[in-house]
Each structure stands twice: as C-alpha cells, then as structure tokens.
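Action item from last meeting closed. Structure (716 res):
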C-alpha cells in the first residue's frame, strides 16, 4: 500500500488536500502491518488515522468505542461521506443486528464500531472469526490503564485481540495519557514493538484562564455576555450543581440546559441534539458530557469547579475550538473543590493505591491552578512536551508575576532530593530543607545529608510554592508508580550539575497571599459528618451517664469520642481499635455506641452521603430482614457479587451469618490452606488462578472472610 492511495481517499471522502501533522506517518505504519500507539489532542484528527487505512485496505476495520452516542455520530458522518460503516450495540433490534452481520459477511462494510463489552462477549467471537479484518482500532485507549483518569475495567479484556489476531495491526488512540499511562496501554494491549506517535498537545487557539472561585456565577454571567450567540460547555462537580446553574442562567436570558448521568436517556439525547444543532447554546454538565460530542464550534469551556486531574482538564478544554478558531477555557478553583474531591476519593471503594494516585493527581491539578507559571508550558510538560517560551495567551503570561534568580534555591532542593536517593515526596523534602525534627527524617538519617536545613530562609509554604514551579517547568517530576516520590529530570540535572540558570516567581508574602486568595478553613464534608457524629455520641454518653449516675468522662473521654467519630467502628473488633476503648468498656458500652454509629451511617448513606461502611450496612440490614442476595442486588441496583462482598465484610466484623449456603467447610479448609502462599489483602484473582477456576470468586471471598474473622483481622 502507498500513501498515494491514502491521499486520494482523503480528498475523495473527506475533501482535504493535505494530512495534518503525523497522520500520514501513522497511516504508513498501519500499511506496514505495525502496531501503533497514537497520542493526539482532542480535535487533532485521530479518526483519520484509522479511517483512511480502513477505506483503502481489503476487509473491514473493527473500531472499539466506549460510547454509543459517539458510534452513532461517527457512522452517520462516515455514511454522509459515502463510506460504508455500521455499528453493533444495544440500541439495535435483533433484526437490525442480523442485517449488519449479513452486510459484514458480504463485504459491504468498511468500518464496524463496537463497544468493548460487545467485542469481548462470547457470542460475538464466531462473527469476528468469519470476517476479513484489516485492523483493530482502540479509541479512548487510556481507559485500559488504571493509571489513567478514566479507567474502565472492560477495556482490560481487549488484550485478547493480539492473542487471537496476531497478524492484524492494532492502533491504540488517546487524547490524554501521561508517560506512565502510555506505557501501560502498550503493555495491557500486548502491542508488538509499536510505532509510537505523539502529536503536539499545543492548542494555541485556546486561551487558558484560571481564576479564584469567588462570585463564580457573577463572573460567568459577565463572561457569557461577552460571548453572545456562542456555544459553550460549563462543567460542574455535581448533578444538582448543573441543574441549579442552568436554571439561573435561563432566568438571566441565556439558552442553557443541563446534562448528567441521571437525566433520562431520551432527554439526554434531546439535550445533546439541541446543543449539536445550536438550539441550545450553553450546556451545564458533569464530565459525563462531551466525549461523544462531535461539535467543532464550541467557543468556550468553563470549569465551575476544579477538575480532578490534568488529563481530564485538558481533554475537556480540548472540546473548544476544534475548528482552529479562537476559543477560551476558563477555570475557577477553590480549596473547597479540593476538599470535596478528597472526600469523594477517601469514601470511595477504590483500593488504597488507586486512592493515593487520585489524590496525587488532584494535588497536581491544584498546583497547576495556583502556579505562577505559563499555563501552556505547565500542561504541555505534564504530557511530556517541552515548551521553552511563554505562550502569551494565558492569564499568567498576560499578567506575569515578579521573578528572581531561583538558581540557588533550585540547586538546594535538587541536591537534597538527590542525596535522599529520590525517595521522598514534596512535603518531606520541604521538611528536610527546613531542618525539621520530623521523626521520619531521623529514622531514614536524612538529617545527616549535607543539605539538611539548607533552606531555612524560606517558610514551608514558600518552599511548596517554589517546588511547584520547579515541577511545572520540568526540573522535577512525580513518579506516580513509586508512591508519588519526586525525581530529578534531565533538565533539573543541568541546573544542579552544569550551572544552568533558572528564574522563578517570588514567593508571595503571607499577607499578600491572603489578599490574592483567602485561605478559608472550610470544612470538608467528611469533617462535617465527623462533627455531627461526635455530638450524637456525646448525647448518648450523657444519657448513659445520667442513667448510671456517673460523670460522662468516666464512660468515654472526649478524645475517645473524637477518635470514635473519625473511625466510626461498626463492630467489636473495630471498636477495640479506638483510642481509649478497652475490653471492659467494650463490654459495658460497646453495643450502645456501635448501634448509634450504625444508625448514623445508615441515615447518612440513605440521604446520599458517601459514608465509609454505609453501603455494606445497607445490604446487611436488608439481609437481616430476610431478603435474598438477588433481591438486595435488584433493589439497590448493584450486582449480586457486590452484595456477597458486603455480607462477607460484615461477617468479618463478627456478624452471625451461616456461610455454608455459599461455601462448604471442606472448601473453606482447602482455600484457607493456600492463604499462606499469599499476603493481605489475599488477592482474589490470584487465588482464583491458583486454583485454576476450581472455586468461584464468591467461595474465595467467604473463605478469606472466615480466615480474617478467626484470626482477628477483620476489615483488613
């Protein structure tokens, strides 16, 4: 195959005379039967990279897409261009699906769009094997990586493609993936020596603006008045926030609507259609909106709240200005946003490694918002692209901060980091530079390095301010796969060893920093819940004390109630972990306090608050009332596997459950006999593979729960 054919197809079907940067090289790699990894920003022309080969090669291309709406738009767009394309998903009737399958087998279709779930299903495999497939394209490939910002477990099953179709090239495409995620995509998909193409992430037509979050609504109204009759998206943190903001904008006379996952499908489709057709100009949405939107004239994207991470931020602002004309990205941020996300992360059921990763990326996002560094330079460096100049099209460049020669400060930080063998995070590095008496410093003997205490002239906040800048200009980087420790980059080594100079923004004095962005000690949702529970426990303590005629503190001290409010023990074993609770007091008062905490957790879970342990308790309460696992799953709209996990957790905590209905004593003995080869948290997948599928995941979960219960490791 030659690129001459590709150029003809580009002109014939798409009307373009020239390929965009890297498109021709990517297409040639596919023609050469190579696997390909493509990182290209939103609006950069990723689709052409697989559509042209699909059109010009014999056979059909199978395209994996995560969104039904996007499939529909792509197929309609291709069909409008005279390209035979189709999709198979849950919106088709049985007859429609058979018609598509017949067209595929007859060779009438050049591109087939499917969801990852459909592609990996057993019923779809016979059809795949009968087709003459010329390539596989995995769109939104970052979804396969747990390091990415939009991990979707179903994507991990796509690794079977290279096993069953080793001769067909596979092209993985994404608009947002840092170095770690790119590496993971290649490994997860088993790409064989892939040709990797990283397009410039610079979208010079998008003006990047960041503002503190005071009077957001008033600022947005002023902004919209300057963008009359223009389309835009306003991203909000919550579904309620979307609806409230849209309603307020309508009152102000703007053509606005809202979109989030709980809006009925028919209405979501109408909202999307109205926006695509400019009947609605402004959409107030959660991040559920946008990935499936193929609208080139979005003139602005506003983030009402701080995004969760830089990947999500850049993907979302990339929906503006896809036509290459000027567009604006406006971001509001506050400490309350960070607190809200932290609450959501900490109360989630993700494992601790995922929580730590999400919090680290959230912190990086907040540092971006606060940093006095060219916004474009910062975000491009994050995606591995150097950018030596200031862009002139962001709020920092348009109002630059006062700078100083930061070489000496940077050298101190880089030297200290190097002398710790790059084994510390930002806060510990600051403590080392300031000569802190922190225990970890002495335990790891960092107090003995030459640069210990070398940075006492700066406050803790000033060092954080300087290190954030060093991070954003590429002197240091965060190793997310190594406990978010800091590493010195090649550029940083030039500062440390070659005498290269660096300018940094002057640390803002505390008083002025307060003027610039007041640091209100806003309570997080978690803190509010803790305070409310603390008051309820005090009332219970008072009642018990009155009944027994003793001072309240003799029952439990305030410090114990505070720790109890923080840990929220739901069982005896948990209660013993509370500071100030011994076996005797557990015997005397444990039941009363556990009952009150459970009541509180159930109430808060019932009103929509994310409370640790709440979802397990809800399942347990229903089970106690005689509901079956299947009934609980149906009523709570969760899977039976999740219900089993909830019940097993409660069993670990000491609740009486007859587990023989799920696993026999003999099976428990066999499974527990193998636990010595593993360590907590006893990974079920590895145990399942160890037994070669002999025992189901449910049986393994119950056996592990029984082991923990018997060995006092409940809740591990």
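Sequence:
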């Amino acid at each position: 195959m030659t690129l001459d054919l590709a150029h003809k197809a580009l002109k014939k079907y798409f009307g373009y005379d020239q390929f965009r940067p890297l498109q021709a090289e990517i297409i040639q790699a596919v023609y050469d039967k190579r696997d390909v990894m493509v990182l290209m920003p939103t609006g950069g022309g990723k689709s052409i990279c697989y559509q042209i080969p699909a059109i010009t090669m014999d056979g059909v291309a199978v395209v994996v897409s995560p969104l039904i709406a996007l499939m529909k738009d792509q197929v309609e767009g291709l069909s409008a261009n005279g390209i035979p394309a189709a999709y198979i998903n849950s919106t088709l009737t049985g007859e429609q699906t058979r018609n598509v399958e017949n067209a595929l087998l007859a060779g009438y279709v050049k591109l087939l769009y499917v969801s990852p779930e459909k592609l990996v299903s057993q019923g779809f495999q016979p059809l795949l094997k009968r087709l003459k497939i010329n390539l596989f394209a995995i769109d939104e490939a970052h979804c396969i990586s747990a390091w990415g910002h939009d991990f979707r477990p179903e994507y991990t099953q796509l690794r079977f493609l290279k096993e069953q179709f080793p001769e067909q090239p596979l092209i993985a495409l994404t608009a947002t993936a840092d170095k770690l995620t790119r590496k993971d995509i290649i490994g997860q998909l088993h790409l064989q020596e892939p040709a990797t193409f990283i397009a410039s992430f610079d979208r010079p037509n998008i003006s990047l603006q960041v503002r503190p979050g005071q009077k957001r609504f008033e600022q947005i109204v002023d902004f919209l008045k300057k963008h009359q009759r223009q389309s835009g998206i306003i991203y909000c943190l919550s579904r309620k926030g979307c609806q409230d903001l849209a309603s307020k904008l309508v009152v102000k006379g703007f053509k606005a609507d809202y979109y989030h996952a709980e809006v009925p499908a028919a209405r979501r489709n109408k909202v999307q259609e109205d926006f695509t057709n400019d009947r609605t100009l402004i959409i107030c949405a959660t991040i559920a909106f946008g990935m499936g939107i193929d609208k080139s004239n979005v003139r602005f994207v506003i983030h009402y709240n701080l995004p969760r991470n830089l990947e999500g931020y850049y993907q979302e602002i990339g929906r503006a200005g896809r036509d290459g004309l000027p567009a604006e990205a406006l971001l509001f941020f506050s400490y309350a946003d960070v607190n809200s996300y932290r609450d959501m992360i900490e109360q989630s059921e993700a494992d601790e490694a995922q929580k730590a990763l999400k919090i680290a990326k959230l912190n990086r996002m907040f540092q971006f918002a606060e940093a006095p560094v060219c916004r474009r330079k910062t975000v491009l460096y994050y995606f591995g692209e150097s950018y030596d100049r200031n862009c002139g099209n962001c709020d920092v460049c348009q109002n630059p901060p006062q700078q100083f020669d930061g070489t000496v400060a940077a050298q101190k930080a880089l030297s200290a980091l190097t002398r710790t063998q790059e084994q510390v995070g930002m806060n510990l590095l600051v403590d080392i530079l300031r000569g802190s008496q922190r225990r970890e410093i002495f335990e790891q003997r960092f107090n003995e390095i030459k640069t210990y205490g070398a940075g006492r002239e700066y406050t803790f906040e000033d060092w954080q301010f300087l290190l954030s800048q060093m991070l954003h200009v590429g002197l240091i980087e965060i190793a997310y796969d190594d406990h978010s420790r800091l590493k010195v980059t090649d550029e940083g080594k030039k500062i440390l060893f070659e005498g290269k100079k660096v300018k940094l923004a002057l640390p803002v004095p505390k008083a002025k920093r307060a003027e610039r962005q007041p640091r209100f000690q806003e309570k997080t949702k978690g803190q509010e819940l803790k305070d409310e529970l603390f008051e309820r426990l005090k009332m219970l303590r008072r009642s018990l004390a009155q009944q027994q005629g003793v001072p309240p503190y003799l029952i439990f001290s305030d410090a114990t109630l505070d720790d109890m409010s923080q840990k929220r023990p739901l069982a005896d074993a948990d209660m013993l972990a509370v500071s100030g609770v011994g076996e005797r007091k557990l015997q005397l008062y444990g039941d009363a306090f556990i009952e009150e905490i459970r009541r509180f957790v159930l109430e808060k879970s019932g009103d929509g608050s994310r409370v640790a342990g709440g979802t397990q308790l809800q399942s347990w309460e229903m089970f106690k009332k005689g509901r079956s696992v299947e009934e609980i799953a149906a009523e709570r709209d969760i899977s039976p596997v999740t219900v089993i996990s909830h019940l097993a957790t409660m069993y670990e905590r000491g609740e009486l459950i007859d587990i023989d209905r799920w696993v026999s004593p003999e099976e428990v003995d066999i499974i527990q006999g193998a636990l010595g080869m593993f360590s907590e948290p006893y990974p079920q997948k590895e145990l399942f593979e160890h037994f070669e599928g002999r025992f189901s995941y449910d049986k393994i979960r119950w056996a592990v729960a029984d082991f923990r219960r018997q060995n006092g490791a409940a809740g591990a």
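Note appended to the action item: Residues 510-521 have pLDDT under 50 and may be disordered.
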